[in-house]
Design brief:
Helix content: 10-25%
Distance between the termini: 110 Å
Mean pLDDT: 83
Largest sheet: 4 strands, mixed
Shape: elongated
Radius of gyration: 31 Å
Number of helices: 1
Number of strands: 10
Structural class: mainly beta
Protein backbone atom coordinates (compact mmCIF):
# COMPACT_ATOMS: atom_id res chain seq x y z
CA UNK A 1 0.00 0.00 0.00
CA UNK A 2 1.30 3.40 -0.87
CA UNK A 3 1.77 6.12 1.73
CA UNK A 4 -0.91 8.20 0.02
CA UNK A 5 -3.43 5.31 0.28
CA UNK A 6 -2.66 4.78 3.98
CA UNK A 7 -3.30 8.45 4.72
CA UNK A 8 -6.57 8.40 2.74
CA UNK A 9 -7.72 5.22 4.52
CA UNK A 10 -6.85 6.70 7.93
CA UNK A 11 -8.80 9.85 7.09
CA UNK A 12 -11.86 7.86 5.99
CA UNK A 13 -11.81 5.69 9.12
CA UNK A 14 -11.50 8.78 11.33
CA UNK A 15 -14.47 10.41 9.60
CA UNK A 16 -16.52 7.24 9.78
CA UNK A 17 -15.98 6.55 13.50
CA UNK A 18 -15.72 10.21 14.49
CA UNK A 19 -19.21 10.97 13.22
CA UNK A 20 -21.01 8.22 15.10
CA UNK A 21 -21.77 10.49 18.08
CA UNK A 22 -25.51 10.67 18.69
CA UNK A 23 -27.16 14.03 18.28
CA UNK A 24 -29.25 14.75 21.37
CA UNK A 25 -32.90 15.20 20.49
CA UNK A 26 -34.54 18.27 22.03
CA UNK A 27 -37.74 17.31 23.82
CA UNK A 28 -40.77 19.56 24.18
CA UNK A 29 -43.83 19.83 26.38
CA UNK A 30 -46.40 22.45 27.35
CA UNK A 31 -47.75 24.31 30.38
CA UNK A 32 -51.42 25.12 30.90
CA UNK A 33 -53.36 26.54 33.82
CA UNK A 34 -55.75 29.10 35.23
CA UNK A 35 -55.12 32.21 37.36
CA UNK A 36 -57.61 32.63 40.22
CA UNK A 37 -58.49 35.44 42.63
CA UNK A 38 -57.32 34.25 46.07
CA UNK A 39 -60.17 35.85 48.02
CA UNK A 40 -63.19 34.79 45.93
CA UNK A 41 -61.82 31.97 43.76
CA UNK A 42 -62.95 33.49 40.46
CA UNK A 43 -60.74 33.21 37.36
CA UNK A 44 -58.93 36.47 36.50
CA UNK A 45 -58.82 37.64 32.87
CA UNK A 46 -55.98 39.67 31.30
CA UNK A 47 -53.19 38.60 33.66
CA UNK A 48 -49.70 38.96 32.16
CA UNK A 49 -47.58 35.81 32.55
CA UNK A 50 -43.85 35.47 31.90
CA UNK A 51 -41.76 32.31 31.74
CA UNK A 52 -38.17 32.08 33.02
CA UNK A 53 -35.89 30.93 31.54
CA UNK A 54 -36.89 31.54 27.96
CA UNK A 55 -38.68 34.87 28.25
CA UNK A 56 -41.95 33.71 26.68
CA UNK A 57 -45.06 35.67 27.69
CA UNK A 58 -48.79 35.05 27.62
CA UNK A 59 -52.01 36.73 28.76
CA UNK A 60 -54.94 34.93 30.38
CA UNK A 61 -58.17 34.70 28.45
CA UNK A 62 -61.58 35.80 29.68
CA UNK A 63 -61.80 32.51 31.64
CA UNK A 64 -58.42 33.09 33.36
CA UNK A 65 -56.73 30.30 31.37
CA UNK A 66 -53.32 30.35 29.71
CA UNK A 67 -51.08 28.00 27.73
CA UNK A 68 -47.40 27.89 26.85
CA UNK A 69 -46.68 25.42 24.01
CA UNK A 70 -43.46 24.01 22.53
CA UNK A 71 -41.47 24.48 25.74
CA UNK A 72 -38.24 22.53 26.13
CA UNK A 73 -38.35 20.04 28.99
CA UNK A 74 -37.01 21.30 32.32
CA UNK A 75 -37.94 23.51 35.27
CA UNK A 76 -39.49 26.95 34.77
CA UNK A 77 -40.77 29.83 36.90
CA UNK A 78 -44.06 31.41 35.85
CA UNK A 79 -44.64 34.96 37.10
CA UNK A 80 -48.16 36.45 37.07
CA UNK A 81 -48.81 40.22 37.17
CA UNK A 82 -51.96 42.33 37.10
CA UNK A 83 -52.68 45.86 38.29
CA UNK A 84 -54.57 45.82 41.59
CA UNK A 85 -53.04 42.47 42.59
CA UNK A 86 -49.80 41.37 44.23
CA UNK A 87 -47.45 39.53 41.84
CA UNK A 88 -47.28 35.76 42.20
CA UNK A 89 -44.98 33.06 40.86
CA UNK A 90 -44.74 29.30 40.76
CA UNK A 91 -42.17 26.70 39.65
CA UNK A 92 -43.31 24.01 37.21
CA UNK A 93 -41.51 21.07 35.59
CA UNK A 94 -42.12 20.47 31.88
CA UNK A 95 -42.12 16.81 30.84
CA UNK A 96 -42.05 15.57 27.25
CA UNK A 97 -45.44 14.79 25.76
CA UNK A 98 -47.42 15.57 28.92
CA UNK A 99 -49.09 18.95 29.50
CA UNK A 100 -47.83 20.35 32.82
CA UNK A 101 -50.54 21.98 34.94
CA UNK A 102 -49.81 25.19 36.83
CA UNK A 103 -52.67 27.08 38.47
CA UNK A 104 -51.86 30.37 40.19
CA UNK A 105 -53.68 32.58 42.68
CA UNK A 106 -53.32 36.35 42.96
CA UNK A 107 -54.04 38.35 46.11
CA UNK A 108 -55.85 41.67 45.73
CA UNK A 109 -54.11 44.79 46.94
CA UNK A 110 -56.20 46.37 49.72
CA UNK A 111 -58.39 49.29 48.70
CA UNK A 112 -57.54 52.85 49.67
CA UNK A 113 -58.60 56.39 48.79
CA UNK A 114 -56.18 59.28 48.31
CA UNK A 115 -56.77 63.01 47.94
CA UNK A 116 -54.36 65.49 46.38
CA UNK A 117 -54.92 68.09 49.15
CA UNK A 118 -55.32 67.74 52.92
CA UNK A 119 -57.29 70.97 53.36
CA UNK A 120 -58.94 73.72 51.35
CA UNK A 121 -57.96 77.11 52.75
CA UNK A 122 -59.98 80.06 51.49
CA UNK A 123 -58.00 82.49 53.65
CA UNK A 124 -59.14 86.12 53.99
CA UNK A 125 -59.79 86.69 50.28
CA UNK A 126 -63.58 87.17 50.01
CA UNK A 127 -63.49 87.00 46.22
CA UNK A 128 -62.17 83.46 46.36
CA UNK A 129 -65.30 81.29 46.31
CA UNK A 130 -64.11 78.06 44.69
CA UNK A 131 -61.35 75.59 45.46
CA UNK A 132 -61.05 72.06 44.12
CA UNK A 133 -59.38 68.75 44.95
CA UNK A 134 -59.24 65.23 43.51
CA UNK A 135 -60.11 61.96 45.23
CA UNK A 136 -58.78 58.71 43.76
CA UNK A 137 -59.87 55.18 44.61
CA UNK A 138 -56.87 53.03 43.62
CA UNK A 139 -58.58 49.70 43.99
CA UNK A 140 -61.08 47.16 42.79
CA UNK A 141 -63.97 47.89 45.16
CA UNK A 142 -66.21 50.82 46.01
CA UNK A 143 -65.21 52.69 49.15
CA UNK A 144 -67.16 55.13 51.33
CA UNK A 145 -65.67 58.48 52.29
CA UNK A 146 -66.85 61.84 53.64
CA UNK A 147 -65.66 65.45 53.87
CA UNK A 148 -65.64 67.34 57.18
Amino acid sequence: MKKKDVILLSLLLTLLFGCTEEIEEIKYGSIAGVVYDESVGDPIPVVKLSLTPGGKTAVTGSDGSFTFINIQTGDYTIKAEKRGYENSSSVVSVVEGTPSECNLTLKRIPAYVTADKDELNFGDNITLTTLSFNIVNSSYENLSWHIE
